[in-house]
Amino acid sequence: MAEYSDVSVNLRPELLKAVHFIFKEQCNVQDGWRIVLISDSHTPQHITTAFSGVAMQFGAEVIEMRVPMGPHPAYQPGYTWDPMNSSAVLAAAEHADLVVDMAIGYAEFMVDIVTAGRTRIIGPGDATGAPHIDDSLIRCLLLDDPHKIRQEAIAAANIFSAGKTLRVTSAEGTDYTVDISDLGGDTFDGFLWDREVNDWVSNYQFTPGATPGVVIPEGRGDGVLALDGLFLYENVHHLPKEPVMLTLEAGRIREISGDPYISHRLEDWLNGLDDDGCRNGPIHANIGLSRHARLTEHLEWERVRGGMVFGIGDNSLLAPFVGADFATSKSSVHWDVQVLRPTVAIDDTTIIDAGIVTLK
Questions:
Q1: Are 54 and 113 in contact (CB under 8 A)?
Q2: Strand, coil or helix: 328
Q3: Distance from first CA to last CA of the chain, Å, rounded?
Q4: Taking Cα atoms as reference points, which of 297, 360, 296, 351 lies closest to residue 169?
Q5: pLDDT per 10-residue tile (average), the chain, 360 residues
Q6: CB neighbours of 274 closer than 8 A, spacing ≥ 6?
């Protein structure tokens, strides 16, 4: 079972503080800005009300766009939005200073918004306005120290950028190595704006942040991942009773074993996709830095401190968001898996030791 996350149908006052932090500290919202707020039927009304109301307090003009509910996050890369929705979002973005996305996530027209320089995008709750998004934002933004986490994320990203080889091991059986010598590390810290340098540092972020790492080209990485954390695949989140073992060769899954329920269901799902790219990976690798993230069905589980999350399948939509320019993996799915107690070393520098963050 995943851990409990509070689901409220009422507006919690602490959410207003969390949204204020997002707009002030992470987005640098100014008086007179135009903000597009995207949600769907999955997003509780009090959540969108909180974001709209706080934006108005900053003096911003706000338009709310409620789009049809999209697919489960694992299916986002292969989903085609109706042109009426995509063109409406693009038209609004032309006039916006900020897009707050709680519904769409990975989509080609969202990539276009960023790469064409139309405006910046912040994705609360990883751009999924789930019913428990407020609990996640309150814990990870108000109980954690996002500025301190950001400094850790910058330090980790710099180590990734300077490194040649990433190696991940664990007592459960993980032993994975990938060449990162020509890759840049990314902070994925949730901040579009840096108040210390008084300048923009990103055009696209999810919040809460706290997942520095690397986006990996197609065809790289060998070894075994012993996955004892959460799985996001098909339309479910599962926590294995025993590790699921992925055997990897040249950036591709060659064998799945371990926990019988998940390994059999995962194999059945992949076999039914008729999608050659669905076994490519890992195509990103990120460590978690949040002390208050939990193993819930919200995507905060990717931020659990001391863990490491790996993406499988498509990264052709993720790579442009971080400015990566290499041979990407193309697939109709993007699914994520987790090692809870990894030892993560870049060359001779260990940044996580058996699930304990050792960043200086």
A1: no
A2: coil
A3: 34
A4: 351
A5: 64 96 98 97 92 98 96 93 97 97 95 93 89 90 96 98 98 98 97 96 95 98 97 92 98 98 97 96 98 88 95 96 92 97 98 96
A6: none
- ω before 68 within 30° of 0 (cis)? no
Residue 173 is classified by DSSP as S
Residue for token pair 């107690």:
341
**Element at 169 (helix H, strand E):** strand 165-169
pTM of the model: 0.95
Q: How many CB atoms lie within 10 A of CB 219?
A: 12
**Closest by CA position to 259, among listed 286, 235, 230:** 230
Contacts of 211 (CB under 8 A, 6+ apart): 153, 188, 286, 287, 288, 289, 302, 303, 309
Cα distance between residue 5 and residue 275, in whole Å: 34
The DSSP code sequence of 159-184 is: HHHH-SEEEEE-TTS-EEEEE-TT--
Of 216, 172, 156, 159, nearest to 357 by C-alpha is: 156
Cis peptide before 208 (omega within 30 of 0): yes
Cα dihedral 94→96→101→107 (10° resolution): 10
57: its two tokens? 């307090």
- C-alpha closest to that of 25 among 117, 145, 126, 130: 145
3-class DSSP assignment, residue 85: helix
